[in-house]
Amino acid sequence: xxxxxxxxxxxxxxxxxxxxxxxxxxxxxxxxxxxxxxxxxxxxxxxxxxxxxxxxxxxxxxxxxxxxxxxxxxxxxxxxxxxxxxxxxxxxxxxxxxxxxxxxxxxxxxxxxxxxxxxxxxxxxxxxxxxxxxxxxxxxxxxxxxxxxxxxxxxxxxxxxxxxxxxxxxxxxxxxxxxxxx
Length: 182
Hints:
The structure is a single chain. The protein has helices spanning 7-17, 31-41, 60-66, 77-88, 96-102, 107-113, 119-129, 134-141, 145-159, 164-177; strands at 21-25, 46-51, 69-72, 93-94. It is an alpha/beta fold. The protein folds into 2 domains: 7-102, Response regulator (Rossmann fold); 107-181, Winged helix-like DNA-binding domain superfamily/Winged helix DNA-binding domain (Arc Repressor Mutant, subunit A, Orthogonal Bundle), CATH 1.10.10.10. Strands 1-2-3-4 form a 4-stranded parallel beta sheet, with helices on both faces. Strand 1, helix 2 (31-41) and strand 2 form a beta-alpha-beta unit. The longest helix is centred in the last third of the chain and has 15 residues, at 145-159. The radius of gyration is 17 Å and the shape is globular. The N and C termini lie far apart (41 Å). The model has no long low-confidence stretch (mean pLDDT 83).
């Protein structure tokens, strides 16, 4: 593992080694910008951000669009291996302690909104929380990707969410705050 001091060093090392994944410290203000640049240049590269207590300036939008995984700096080696495997298999991952810092969803508003959703919509939320993409959800539920997209639009509308990114944050909190996720 190499440590890079700037984005140019990082790009050179990626070109030289062609890694499957990269871990970036989020304590740097330009970490999101660098991650976005790397995502554009290396589309198959999985990027995991390590956040510490000073990473409060990050938004849920930034984290979901620029990183494949977000973990706490206190993560154990075993947890990191598990998270790395999830991310490399195409799932998104945000550790719960990081999500709490950046999300506006509480167990109270999750419980208040649960009755607005059908059981299928709740099921879709549990898949979203796992970081599954539309195609994966559709295959698991034996429905079309268009039906999955329709369910997502309905959930966003019913819960008055701003879009997919807020939907993802809500889904994670939903699974944590409801029995069996739905």
